[in-house]
Amino acid sequence: KTVAEVCAFGMAVGGLMNAFVRFLIGIFIGAGAGPIVALSGEVAPKVFRGLALTVLPLPWALGVTLVVIGSLLAYAIIEPYGWQGLLLAITLAFSPCIVFLILVRVSPRYVYHYRGDTKAAK
Prior knowledge:
The chain is mainly alpha-helical and 122 residues long. It is built from five helices and no strands. The radius of gyration is 21 Å and the shape is flat.
């Protein structure tokens, strides 16, 4: 197997160890899923309860999607360009996020509510 295949499919420590760790993670995630749903349903206000319970599994779906995209990116880039190419691709993919964080200012509502600035209320 090539280095790209090993890294892309997460089998670096061996298939048996990977299966064992995934089994343990599945047990702990499964044990925590029930209380998470119950607590988010109880804590959320009545108006937003449906939205809170609907949006709850969204991070899992986004995480799986990003893992698949990252694995395919690693599989496609590491073999021809090496780790430096993968690092460059990831940097270019996230550079708009860094520029966005630099350019976006704090909202007036945040300034009024948390800093007590009365000019922001206008």
